[in-house]
Amino acid sequence: MEFADHFSEHAASYRQYRPGYPAGLYDWLCGLVPSRRLAWDAGTGNGQAALDLAARFERVVATDPSERQIAEATAHPRIGYGIAAETNPALKDASVDLVTAAQAMHWFDLDRFFAEVARVLRAGGVIAAWTYHRSVVSDAVDRVTDRFRVETMGPFWPPGREYVEDEYRTIPFPFRRLEAPRFEVRERWTARRFLAYLDTWSAVRRCRKATGEDPLRALEPELVAAWGGMDVERDVRFPLAILAGRTEEA
Fold it and tell me: How many CA atoms does the CB half-sphere of 30 hold within 13 Å?
């Protein structure tokens, strides 16, 4: 199976260092769906979103084409994990209330994914995909990380990343759009923890392979100075961009 595999080699660190998502996002989605019988989390990775969905839905199907990502997922009695692409879930027609894609849809074959979403969603069902592309810490830190993300890492981002930078606004979306409230991820991290998060970026990994050098080693002194110290804790925010839509009611 061919897929955009940017994270299998560091699936364990992805599980450990990627942030989760706010409870308010899931509560908002639950208020939109026709029922809470079944949710499909596409591109689930290690199941971060699937676990939150399982607290609210009777059953969750969570799929990812990466066997190593699925191996890192946390088991839950209401989650059925599967190694499958976003274009081939083992789901019946018109059976799903909610389809989600958390920090993943920009890597998908979008035409085929949307065709599958249209097939599996029941009447009035909802699709919601969300992403974040920058962190907000302080003016000093943000200047350093924005330059690193855009300029230093720019040549190393895989195709599809442009959708993230555009906050999903340029994705051709065939469903009736729903206006989403503003949500953001909030964490309390040290600079050490933040650097571990940066180490999960696909561009950082691709840069190492292409150049033989570690871009985080060059970034670290400037980042830590702007942060105020390696082990100083700061609030870190990740504003979410949300693309949501609904199928037509029966």
Answer: 14
Show me where the domains of the chain are located.
8-136+158-187+235-246
Residue 234 bridge partners (DSSP): 189
Contacts of 212 (CB under 8 A, 6+ apart): none
Phi, psi dihedral angles at 131 (to 5 degrees): -155, 165
Report the C-alpha gap between 105 and 214 in whole angstroms. 28
CB atoms within 10 A of CB 190: 17
Q: Which CATH number fits domain 8-136+158-187+235-246: 3.40.718.10, 3.40.50.150, 2.40.30.20, 3.40.50.261?
A: 3.40.50.150
| Rounded mean pLDDT, 67-89 | 89
Q: According to the model, what pLDDT value does residue 18 have?
A: 73
Do the beta carbons of residue 249 and residue 124 sit within 8 Å?
Answer: yes
Task: Give me the mean pLDDT over the 50-76 stretch.
Answer: 93
pLDDT at res. 250: 43
How far apart are the C-alpha atoms of 137 and 148, rounded to whole Å?
14
For the entire predicted model, the pTM comes to 0.90
